[in-house]
């Protein structure tokens, strides 16, 4: 009879659980106090025949040890939880913790890169602090060419006697294209995203720094028709399948012929509204066929290879997609502004 009670209590104690310290103390009293169930079994032990005392005594001691260990284990777990609950990390931000969002520039940058990646363009990046050769001279800007005035530059080091010794903050990511052409023979098919700098007054429509993505494709028999089709695909993937494009003649020192590309206004569908100044069109990028002088400067034979290039400002595209009226909002670090793009992920 006593052996059955011991085995029954073993099963109960092995499965003990407690919600809190009070419940645990109640279990301790039930099993281990002077009037507890284990103490009662020790009282019954006195009536056990002498030849069985050793066996029963051993089992009772094992039962008491099991109960004590179980109670202590549960108590230790409560103490550990309490200690963790009171642990304060003074380096953590103040509560409540808020989930952040990606910056709209990052969202649009990724979307543009994904579109051109599907066309086989690979990513290429370069330094923001550059020399004159990679930013201007290798791109067909002569030392005294007035086109240099189109891109007011931040100088790190300026030599008035020799522009080729100038060190500047790059004014476009075309410098990455030059570096790629210098180290790699065609075929070349790259896009070059990055931050660029120009010495301009900061207004709602302009900033002294912004983000660009430029593209370059050089191979045999590349034509302007290839460029137009790629840009049409890009515009329709970015703004919708009904988007139309138009190319207007323009001038860039590093491309010939050159063009500005407009897309049909996404607000009015090309009918004309205040956003597109009632023209039905919105300008988004510049493009053209790579000038043979640019190919020669990087060691590529223009009699064998031809290519096209294009460049666009990410802020400009972001403005069009999300109707942001003030460029300064992108760099003011106002969390309320960033929260508006949570649904755009």
UniProtKB/TrEMBL annotation:
Mg(2+) binds at residue 256. Its cofactor is Mg(2+). Transmembrane segments: none annotated. It catalyses: tRNA(Phe) + L-phenylalanine + ATP = L-phenylalanyl-tRNA(Phe) + AMP + diphosphate + H(+). Binds 2 magnesium ions per tetramer. It is found in: Cytoplasm. One of its GO terms (molecular function) is tRNA binding. Its EC number is 6.1.1.20. GO terms for cellular component: cytoplasm. InterPro entries: aa-tRNA-synth_II, aa-tRNA-synth_II/BPL/LPL, Phe-tRNA-synth_IIc_asu, Phe-tRNA_ligase_II_N, Phe_tRNA_ligase_alpha1_bac, Phenylalanyl-tRNA_Synthase, tRNA-bd_arm. Residues 108-320 form the Aminoacyl-transfer RNA synthetases class-II family profile domain. Pfam families: Phe_tRNA-synt_N, tRNA-synt_2d. Belongs to the class-II aminoacyl-tRNA synthetase family. Phe-tRNA synthetase alpha subunit type 1 subfamily. Tetramer of two alpha and two beta subunits. This is Phenylalanine--tRNA ligase alpha subunit.
């Amino acid at each position: 009879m006593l052996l059955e009670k011991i085995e029954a209590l073993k099963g109960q104690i092995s499965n003990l659980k407690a919600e809190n310290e009070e419940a645990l103390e109640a279990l301790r009293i039930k099993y281990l106090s002077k009037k507890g169930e284990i103490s009662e079994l020790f009282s019954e032990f006195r009536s056990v025949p002498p030849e069985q005392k050793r066996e029963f005594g051993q089992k009772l001691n094992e039962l008491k040890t099991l109960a004590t260990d179980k109670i202590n284990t549960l108590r230790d777990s409560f103490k550990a939880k309490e200690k963790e609950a009171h642990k304060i990390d003074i380096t953590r931000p103040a509560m409540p913790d808020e989930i952040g969002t990606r910056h709209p520039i990052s969202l649009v940058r990724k979307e543009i890169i994904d579109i051109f990646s599907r066309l086989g363009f690979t990513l290429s990046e370069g330094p923001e602090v550059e020399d004159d050769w990679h930013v201007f001279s290798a791109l067909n800007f002569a030392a005294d060419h007035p086109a240099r005035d189109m891109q007011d530059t931040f100088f790190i080091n300026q030599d008035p006697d020799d522009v080729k010794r100038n060190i500047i903050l790059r004014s476009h990511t075309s410098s990455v294209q030059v570096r790629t052409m210098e180290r790699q023979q065609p075929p070349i098919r790259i896009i070059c995203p990055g931050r660029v700098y120009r010495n301009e007054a900061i207004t709602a429509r302009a900033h002294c720094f912004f983000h660009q993505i430029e593209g370059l494709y050089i191979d045999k028999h590349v034509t302007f028709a290839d460029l137009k089709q790629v840009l049409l695909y890009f515009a329709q993937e970015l703004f919708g399948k009904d988007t139309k494009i138009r190319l207007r003649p323009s001038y860039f020192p590093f491309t010939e012929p050159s063009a500005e590309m407009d897309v049909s206004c996404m607000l009015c569908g090309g009918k004309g509204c205040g956003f597109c100044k009632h023209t039905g069109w919105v300008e988004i990028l510049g493009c053209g066929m790579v000038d043979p002088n640019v190919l020669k400067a990087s060691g590529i034979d223009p009699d064998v290879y031809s290519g096209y290039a294009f460049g666009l400002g990410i802020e400009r595209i972001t403005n069009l997609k999300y109707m942001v009226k003030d460029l300064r909002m992108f760099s003011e670090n106002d969390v309320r502004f960033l929260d508006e793009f949570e649904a755009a992920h």
